[in-house]
Amino acid sequence: MPPTPPEDESMSRVSLRLPETLKVRVEEAAAAEGMSVNAWLIRAVLQTLEPARSSARVTIGRNLTGWVR
C-alpha cells in the first residue's frame, strides 16, 4: 500500500490515457496484490521516482530467514 500523504498535502487529479491492453494488465496486477488501480499506480510511480526509499517498503513481509545450503 502506498504511504499516506501528509495531512497538509492535497491530492491532485491526473487524466492518464493507456492502451487498453496496458490498462487490463494494470488492473490485473493491482487485483493480484489486493490493491486499487489508483494505489497500485501511486506505488509504481513512487518506486520509479524514489527507488531507494520504496524498495524497503515493497520487500516488507517478503524476507526469508533461516539457513541455506
UniProtKB/TrEMBL annotation:
List the Gene3D superfamilies hit by this protein, alphabetically: Met repressor-like
Q: Which GO terms of type biological process are on file?
A: regulation of DNA-templated transcription
Q: What is this protein called?
A: Toxin-antitoxin system HicB family antitoxin
The record ties this protein, via Pfam families, to: HicB
Q: InterPro entries from the xrefs?
A: Arc_rbn_hlx_hlx, Ribbon_hlx_hlx, Uncharacterised_HicB
- Listed CDD domains: RHH_CopG_NikR-like
Q: Which species is this record about?
A: Jiangella anatolica
Question: Which superkingdom heads the taxonomic lineage of this protein's source?
Answer: Bacteria
| Signal peptide range | none
